[in-house]
Every structure is written in C-alpha cells, then in structure tokens.
Design a protein that fits this description.
Helix content is 44%, strand content 12%. With 523 residues, it is of the alpha/beta class.
Length: 523
C-alpha cells in the first residue's frame, strides 16, 4: 500500500490493515478550500501534520467544517517537494500509545502545500489570493521560536514587496489583506510564552518601519493593531522524528511509504508522522473574522489569563521541572532515554517529590485542567512511553536558562506563602545540587561525559572545575558562586534559606562512585 489519493480509494485494504480513512469527498473538499479558504497554516512540519491537520480532519468528518487547510512552508521548501506533494498532500498520522501499540489514520485535510516565496510564482500567487479572501478566518503558525526573530533583518527597511524573511513576507501578505479591508486572526501555535505577543511584536517592527518610511499607508499600522488579533496559546504534544520502530510496524501491515527524508536544512520527516497520544491546545478566544469550531475536537477556547495559567502550570510545576530533574540525573546516571529512566524507581520517586509533594501546594491552577491529573498523565503515561525516544541529553540543553522558571517560581511561591516554609523543600534543592554535580561533567561512576550545550556552560563548568571528584574541600566556595545567582534561579538561594541544604546534598553526591545513587535511594 502506497500513500496516494488513488490508492486509498481501495478502502478495504487500508481498513483491513487498521487505518482509519477520511469520511468525506477529498477532491470536493479541496476544491471548496481553494475557492473559499478559512484556514491557512504556516510551517508544514511534523507537529502541524500530527495535530492541527488531524483536528481539522476530525471536524470535516463530523460535518462541522467543509474546508481544509492551505499549508505553506516558508523555511524548508523540501517539505513540500519531498514530504507532502509526492503523497498527494496526504499524511499517515500514527499515534504512539504508552502500551507499545499504535493507531493509524490517513489525514487528507491539507488541501494544498505551498512554498511561501516569490521565486515559486504559482505558489506565491495562490498564497496571496488566499490571504485576500474574505472567507479567511485564521492563519496559524508552527515555525518555532526562531522563526519570529527579526534581529539584523534588512527587510525592516526594504519595500514590503521585497521582503524575504519569514515574518517580513507575512507582514506583506497582511498588507494585501488590509487593502481588501478584511479583518484576520493570527494564531501562533509555537511553544513559547505569550506567543501571540511575540508574533505581534515581530510583525509590528516591519509594519511601523514601512509606515515610517512611507512605503505603506499609516492606516496599515492601525489595521494591524485593531483589525488583527494575536491570541495567546499553549500547545503541548511530543512529536519526535520518524521512529524506526514505527517503520517496522507500518511495513509489517503493508504500508510501503516509510522512507525517512532528511532535508538539506536537517528536517527529519516522512509520509507518516508519529506522535504521542496526549495533546493540549489552549487558545485565547479572540477572533476577528469568526473562528473554526476547534472546540468541537477537544481544543479549548478561553481567556488570556487562563491561557497564561495553563502555561505556568505546565512549565513551573507539572511537566518541565520533572523533565529537568530527569535530564540532570539521567546524564549523571548514564541513561540515554527518558523512557528508560521511568523504569528506575529512585528517579520516579524523585520526580514525584518534585511534582506532587513540592509543586502542587503552590501550583497555578487554571481550573480548566486538573494540575494533579496533568502530572498523573505525565508520570504514568507520557514519560514512560517507549515510542517517545527522547533523551536526557537533549532536555539538558540550556538548563541555566530554565532554572528560574522551572524551580525558582516554586521557591518564590513558598517564600511568599504564609502556611509553607521554603526550608521544608527537599526534592527541588536536591535537583539544584544535582545540577551543580552535573556541571562537573563526571558521572556517578567517575567517568567523564560531555554536558549539553548551554550559553553559561563554559563559565559554570570553569567554576566547578575547582572541585575534584570525591573531594569536597573546595565545594562550598564553588557552589556558592552559582546558587547565589538570582539571574539564574530568580532568587539568591542563600537568602531564602536553601544554600546550606544544597551544599549538604552536593557533598553527599560527591563522595565517590555511586554516591549520587545512594542519595537518591535515601530520599
């Protein structure tokens, strides 16, 4: 079975192989989409195909939408040429279950795949036409946080029609819509805090510069402020690279389109996309030209304050701190897979202590999701999933930039609480001490390892080089230079009474081979 519109017409062979198929006339739906588009998506990567595109298909199947998505790629054009178009813009969406099984669905909601650049004339003209359509309700984005960068970009001073950067081209397309007089909603679905503001601020740098230079009417700036909305969102779904284990399972059931494609820009993709079962998309309900009924497929619309609370719940308590704890101790303990760490009862006890015991008492509760239920799912389903081949070494990247959010906010909440004492914390100080121990670049058996990239790594490792493995003579002096830094932790850890405890844990973990494990066992 090869993935194509012609092949999936033989529904029985696909259904016999366990694939769910679209329940609508694909060609008619795609024709309607091009005539009156409602949804454009920029950034046609794996998470888009595994999540928004699959959600759109669910709504079409239910008869709640009759148009699909026009996908545009403005960075890696090989995604269109090698991942989407050769398979008639179809995707095999593979859901990876924690019990080691998979669910398979053929997603056909991508009505067109366009290369968002003027050098591809037909694609660009269709994208311009679609942006100008009165029917267009939403343009969504998964272009990664780097996609919003405007540092050093000459487009800000160039004419709009000459824009070549991602955001510059979007600003130009918005200008075309402004000339038509239609409002619009731009929805960042990228995993960064207050993403709607990040998108708006990036666009407005171009818009205001072009207005100031006289390239566009000053009313364009007013339009972008008043007739365009930029909702905040929180998205959470792990979508790893194509898995060899999934390839084997697909080939076993007769699916032939399994080749992994590695583009020149180092994108890993295939005709299928594999992702975990858990997924969350919370969107601020602020739409200017109507909105697709995403809430009928599990997406939550709410107010901006609640979106912010959901993000804080996840980042400060229910997921990210647990990830960092596993990253630090996984590297020290010699693990290469998060799922393998979840078979280690001492590490599971550690993250339960970080999340349940110390995080939940001060968690930001958004009400629309249960913080405890979220942690339950993380610990019992998401992290142990054998298909999610995530590595502690990847998660350990840039830890110095994450400590203040992932642990500092909880520490400050304890300090501000009338019924809780900072000095009662045990597991969070242990993780911080563990990070200092990690910065020695020596594992629990005394073997050197290479720490993950971090902008402060040379400085911090330089401090910890004064401490020898198994010898704590210089430990307190080195550690004090790190844990007193409010720029890293959001607070001087000595000033809140945790300095001595962190030093004690570090001493115990640096007593020689196996010392880290002994501390974990005794927690």
């Amino acid at each position: 079975m090869k993935l194509s519109l012609q092949e999936i017409k033989n529904a029985k062979q696909w259904e016999d192989a366990g694939f769910k198929l679209p329940h609508y006339d694909i060609e008619e739906m795609r024709k309607r989409t091009l005539e009156a588009p409602e949804w454009i998506h920029l950034g046609a990567g794996n998470i888009f195909r595994a999540f928004p595109a699959r959600i759109c298909q669910e709504l079409i199947n239910k008869g709640l939408m009759d148009t699909g998505i026009i996908a545009a790629e403005g960075y890696d054009y090989e995604i269109c040429d090698k991942v989407l178009r050769p398979f008639d813009n179809l995707t095999a969406a593979i859901t990876l279950k924690a019990d080691g099984t998979i669910e398979k669905e053929i997603v056909a909601s991508i009505s067109a795949s366009l290369k968002a650049d003027r050098q591809f004339r037909e694609d660009w003209e269709l994208l311009e036409k679609s942006f100008k359509a009165k029917s267009l309700k939403m343009v969504s984005f998964t272009i990664t946080e780097k996609g919003y960068s405007v540092t050093g970009n000459k487009d800000i001073e160039s004419r709009p029609v000459d824009a070549v950067s991602y955001i510059g081209k979007v600003a130009y397309l918005c200008y075309l819509r402004f000339k038509e007089g239609h409002p619009l909603t731009l929805v960042s679905m990228d995993n960064c805090s207050h993403n709607g503001d990040i998108l708006k601020n990036a666009l407005m740098l171009y818009v205001n510069s072009w207005c100031g230079l006289g390239y566009v009417e000053k009313e364009f700036s007013e339009y972008m402020e008043n007739s365009v909305s930029y909702p905040w969102t929180m998205i959470d779904k792990i979508t790893p690279r194509p898995s060899e284990g999934v390839v084997d399972m697909l080939e076993e059931c007769g699916f032939e389109s399994t080749q992994t494609i590695i583009t020149e820009k180092n994108t890993y993709a295939a005709a299928f996309v594999n992702a975990e079962e858990a997924e969350y998309l919370i969107i601020e309900d602020n739409f200017k030209n109507g909105r697709p009924p995403l809430d009928r497929a599990g997406i939550i619309f709410t107010d901006r304050e609640t979106v912010d609370k959901v993000e804080k719940m996840k980042v400060c308590t229910c997921l990210n701190p647990l990830h960092t704890a596993l990253a630090v101790f996984g590297c020290i303990s010699g693990y290469n897979r998060i799922s393998e760490e979840m078979k280690d009862r001492d590490l599971v006890k550690l993250i339960k202590g970080v999340g349940y015991r110390e995080g939940l008492p001060v968690v930001t509760d958004p009400k629309i999701l249960s913080p405890k239920g979220f942690i339950d799912e993380v610990i019992n389903t998401r992290l142990p999933n054998p298909f999610i081949e995530d590595m502690p070494q990847r998660i350990a990247c840039d830890t110095s930039q994450k400590m203040g959010i992932r642990f500092g906010e909880t520490i400050k909440a304890y300090a501000a609480s009338e019924g809780l004492e900072v000095t009662d914390l045990e597991y969070i100080p242990l993780v911080i001490a563990g990070w200092c121990r990690y910065l020695m670049a020596v594992d629990d058996m005394g073997r050197e390892f290479e720490p993950s990239p971090d902008p402060l790594l040379p400085e911090l490792m330089g401090i910890m080089k004064r401490v020898d493995f198994g010898n704590n003579d210089n430990a307190n002096d080195a550690i004090s230079k790190i844990i007193s830094r409010a720029d890293i932790f959001g607070v001087d850890l000595y000033s809140v009474g945790l300095g001595g405890k962190i030093e004690k844990y570090f001493h115990e973990m640096n007593e020689g081979m196996g010392a880290v494990r002994r501390v974990l066992v005794n927690m």
